[in-house]
Amino acid sequence: MLKILTPRAAVRTSLWTVLPLAAVLLTACSDRKPDPQAGKGAPPEVGVVIVSAQDAPLSLELPGRLSASQVAEIRPQVSGIVLKRLFTEGSVVRAGQPLYQLDAASYEAERARTAAALQKAEAQAGVARTRAERDAELLKADALSRQSADDSASALRQAQADVAVARAALDAARVQLDRTRITAPITGRIEVSTVTAGALVTANQTQVLTTVQQLDPMHVDIVQSSAEMLQLRRQLDGGTGSRQIRLLLEDGSEHPQAGMLQVSGVTVDRGTGAVTLRATVPNPAGALLPGMVVRARLLAGVDSDAILVPQQGVSRSPTGDATALVVGEGNKAETRRLVLKRALGNQWLVASGLKVGDKLIVEGLQRVRANQVVTPVPAGAAKGKKAGAGAAGAGNPAASATTTDASASAPASAAPTSGTGGSR
Known about the structure:
Helix content is about 35%, strand content about 30%. By secondary structure, it is an alpha+beta fold. The strands form two sheets. The chain has a six-stranded antiparallel barrel with strand order 2-9-12-11-10-13. The protein has a four-stranded antiparallel beta sheet with strand order 6-5-3-8, with no helix packed on it.
C-alpha cells in the first residue's frame, strides 16, 4: 500500500539522509594534513643572459652640419643694366659659362677710343723713330750736333712710352667690356637669381646676383670637445683609430658613401670648449645639401675584452645610478651597481659592476626583487614555453572534449537523486 508523506515528514526524512553524509565529509577533511607549500608560490621564472667579454668598436656619433666644398657669390664688377639672364635656376653650370649679359654699349665705345689712341701713339712713335735714325747717321758724318741727335733719341723713347700707355688703356677697356658678360667662376649648382632683366647693377655691390655651390664633394663640420679630440688624436697616431666616417641623415638613413676626416680646427671655443673638425664626403647623387644637420659616426678604435650587456637589463635607481639584477648563489637575485661608459646600439658598454660569467636578468624584471629566489632560464625560453603551452591548450581537442563530457554528465547523474528524493 502506497504511503503518502506530509511535507513536514518529507523534510525530516531528507535531513536524516543528508546528516550522516556531512559527518563523513567533515571527518575526512579533519584527517587531511596541512600542506606546508600551500601558501607559497613557485619561484618566478626569469630570462637571463651570460655576461661575456668581446671586442667592441668604439664609434663616436657627433653632430655636424654640411657645407659646400666651394661657394662663389656672383656680383657685378662693372655697372650697367641687365639685358638677359643666361642660365636656368637650380641647374648645374660649368666654370666659364655665361650667367648674365649687361648693356655693353658704353664699354664698347671706350674700347674703340683707346684703340684709336693706341694707333695715334704708334704713328707718332714711327715718326720719332725715323727722325732719331736719321740724326744718328748725320752725327756719324759730323753733319749734326750731338745735342740734336740726343733730342731725337729722347723723343723716340717718349713716343714708345706713349704707345705702352695707350696699349694698357686698350687692355683695361677690353677687360671692362668682357666684364659686361658675367660668367661662372666654378662648376656647381646655381641658386635662384635675385635680379631680372632691366635691373640696374653697380660694380662691387653688396647684394649678390646669385650663388654657385660645388656639392660634390661636400664638407662636414663636426663639433667635438677638446678632451675627445685629444683622445682621438692619440688613437689616430697609434693606428687604432680610423679617419673614415659615416653620415646619419635627418630621417635616420645612412649616406651610402663614406667620408674621410681631413683637418681639425686650431682654436678651442672659449664658450663651449669644442673644436671643429672637417671631413669630406662624396655626393655624386646630390642628396646632401648645404645646411643639413647630420650625425657623423667615427670609428675611434676597438675596446678589447669589453663587457656589453642588453639595455633592457639595466635600470636606473631614484638617484640616477645604473643598476642591474643578477642571479647569485642559491638562485637569489642580487642588485649590482654599474658604471657605464657609453651606448653601442641597443647595448651598454659596462666599465664596472659586472664580470664575465654573471647571469644578468633581462626578462621578468617586473616580477623580481632583490634577495628573491628565482628560476633562471635562457632569455627568450620563457616566452617560447608560454606560447607553446597556450598553443597546446588551444589545439588539444581531447582535453576540450573531456571537459565538455564531464560537464554534460553532471546533471545526468544528479537527475536520479532528485527523482529518488521525490519518490521518497
